[in-house]
Amino acid sequence: MSMRALPVGDAALLVEVSSGEEAQALHAELLRRRAEGSLSVREIVPAARTVLLDGLTDPARLAAELSVADIPPAPPRARAVVELPVRYDGPDLADVAAHWGVAPHEVARIHAATEFSVAFCGFAPGFGYLTGLPERYDVPRRATPRTAVPAGAVALAGPYTGVYPRSSPGGWQLIGTTEAVLWDHARVPAALLSPGTRVRFVPVGAVGA
Amino acid sequence: MTDRALAVVRAGALTTVQDLGRPGHAHLGVPRAGALDGPAAALVNRLVGNPPEAAVLEATLNGCSLRPRSAVTVAVGGAPCPVRVDGRPVAWGAPVRVPAGALLDVGSALRGVRSYVGVSGGITVEPVLGSRSTDLLSGLGPAPLTDGTVLPLGSPTHLHARVDVAPQPAPPTELVLRVTLGPRDDWFTPEAVRVFTSRTYRVSPAGNRIGLRTEGPALERARPGELPSEGMVLGAVQVPPDGRPVVFLADHPTTGGYPVIAVVRTEDLAAAAQAVPGTPVRFLGVRRR
């Protein structure tokens, strides 16, 4: 794995890798090091092609260590799959079907047959960027974002699937709705999805209903 | 009388509960939040004998009015402002005894933006993920105060040394923010980097707890395209497509896709929180420590 560690301010490092899979492997390795006590850091924030480490006392030393580190592939995922019931009734289902070159009910079938994993979180507490669909199913964001996307909306943008934890403005393509509660700060853990979580969407009701 | 509570008579333009924030949850998309002028919040806590993690009120520009239901000690710091108890002027930046039922009025900021109100015992609204801070980006924590809100207060501890008076920095007339370049300075032309660290910007009125926005010369990118979302730190200077730098403050998003040209030293962010719109801003390039 080729890594580039970019200093960020005086106490953080942004470690850049060349793919989402590598970012997930690096994230898993950094979590392992923190758990065993060999890495002291306040935040480990995975993203699309990077992992940010914030709250380091000696970022330069860690950068030097990582430059010669051997990062193993992400370990086999032992965690259980989180199943999200979804009604494929989104207003953009037909647009997504057109991008994919399939019928609308095929969007639901393909999406529900895919095993996703949470690559990273952001945008809002509990919003996960889920990967798993093949690249040919990438879709653009909507040209004009909606001022209000309802909580529970299941949506696509670029290579990602996401579920809106609460109502907010958004430019993703809406394909369905789930009643799962993605974020509840009174629950432990508050976030249903966190980086590394495996996810499946389980259809309920008829497509387009 | 054990009715330890504070009634909000006048909430002001934007008054929120703030403490040290909730760092450690960025990987879940949870911003850190917390007082924007950390040293001022720490000082008002010390003045009333609270531990540093006690929650205080952060008022914006035009203060707030509060009526405690039991006698409390308060201290107002941060942006200098007139302070009155039942109409009588009392000290700013020092502990003041407010009797039960009296009206504490925190006036409009004479200079600066954010005044802090520390109350003995601290504001004890229910914490969320270990913090009582209002986070305006994600909506976590208590909602901004409204007229009629009643806030619970903790019991004074008296375990911490109280100080009677303490010097506070004046709000800046010129904001000088020390920055270390990167991680994405290579997304900008060398000329843009030179402009960024040499020209004067001004604080835009569009700023908030999420970011200090600036007006000034647009920074030209050296490359087109989008950056895949990446983690963001406090003090990151993000440059959106309009080319005007935005300095990320406590409620900043945890990830973002606009390139970060530089990062402001954390110690300089308290002054950024007190810079009124129109204040000149210079970004001073410094070497990494």
Question: Could you explain how this protein is built, in words?
Answer:
The complex is a heterodimer of chains A (209) and B (289). Chain A has 2 domains: 4-67, Gyrase A, domain 2 (2-Layer Sandwich); 81-203, Cyclophilin-like (Cyclophilin), CATH 2.40.100.10. Chain A contains 4 helices and 13 strands. Chain A has helices spanning 20-36, 59-67, 93-100, 104-112; strands at residues 4-8, 12-16, 43-46, 50-54, 81-86, 116-121, 128-131, 146-149, 153-157, 160-163, 168-170, 173-177, 198-203. In chain A, a hairpin with a 3-residue loop joins strand 3 (43-46) and strand 4. In chain A, helix 3 crosses helix 4 (104-112). Chain B is mostly beta strands and 289 residues long. Chain B has 2 domains: 5-152, no CATH class; 175-285, Cyclophilin. Helices cover 8% and strands 29% of the residues of chain B. Chain B has 3 helices and 20 strands. In chain B, the strands form 4 sheets. Chain B has a 7-stranded mixed β-barrel with strand order 12-19-16-17-14-13-20. Chain B has a 6-stranded antiparallel sheet with strand order 7-6-9-4-1-11, with no helix packed on it. Chain B is elongated. The model of chain B has no long low-confidence stretch (mean pLDDT 95). Chains A and B meet through strand 1, strand 3 and strand 4 of A and strand 15, strand 18 and strand 19 of B.
